[in-house]
Amino acid sequence: MAVEPLSPKEIEARLAELPGWSLDGDRLTRSYRLGSHFAATALVVHIARIQDELDHHSDLTLGYNTVSLSVNTHSAGGAVTEKDVELARRVEDIAPGHTPH
Questions:
Q1: Which of 1, 8, 91 has its CA nearest to residue 53?
Q2: What is residue 4's three-state secondary structure?
């Protein structure tokens, strides 16, 4: 089953539910600042596990105490799809400081 790109209005609506996430060109992006390099590294490991579970992977950058993600769907021509939104939601669920709804 093909994954369809989201429309600009759909992306805007999804981003309204994902504080801190934004659209940068054709990619969803988010950066997290953590208390230490170890905490940032641990978050990367948890994100990698989620990405493997979803079989959908972002560009993931580890800094000293930061983690940055950038994602779109290659099989949809590099557009933003529900797969990207689901990855963002799952990362938000485990990110430090996340408050469950």
A1: 91
A2: coil
CA angle 65, 70, 74 (to 5 degrees): 150
How many CB atoms lie under 10 A from the CB of residue 92?
17
* End-to-end Cα distance, the chain: 31
Residue 34 contacts residue 66 (beta carbons within 8 Å): yes
Residue-wise pLDDT tens digits, 42-95 = 999 999 999 999 999 999 999 999 999 999 999 999 999 999 999 999 999 999
pTM given for the model: 0.93
* Strand (E) or helix (H) holding 77: none
Do residues 73 and 1 touch, judged by C-beta distance below 8 A? no
